[in-house]
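WARN retry 2 of 3 for item q-0093 after timeout on previous attempt; input resubmitted unchanged.
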Amino acid sequence: MLTKSRRLTTRQLETVMAEGRPVHSTLFIARIMKQVKPAQTRIAAIAPKKIAKTAVARSGLRRRIYNAASKFLDRIEDGFDIALFAKDATLEASVEAL
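OK item q-0093 returned
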């Protein structure tokens, strides 16, 4: 799980949504934005109701995404804000695939 300092706040997420550049993959849609004052890279995991119907399922999916993100975070250079939106394939994907 990512520490709170490595996760985006609601206000930061709104900024990334408005100004971030979209990148698509089979498991995620990512919005990536370079930070104005470079600091640690921060990540938000979003599990839409369209994908996971119950709150329990959405929370579990977010935890899996944060867990997977914490494993590769050291390979991402600092200074970025990233919002990861889960796609349908994310539900069946293993943690290694995430």
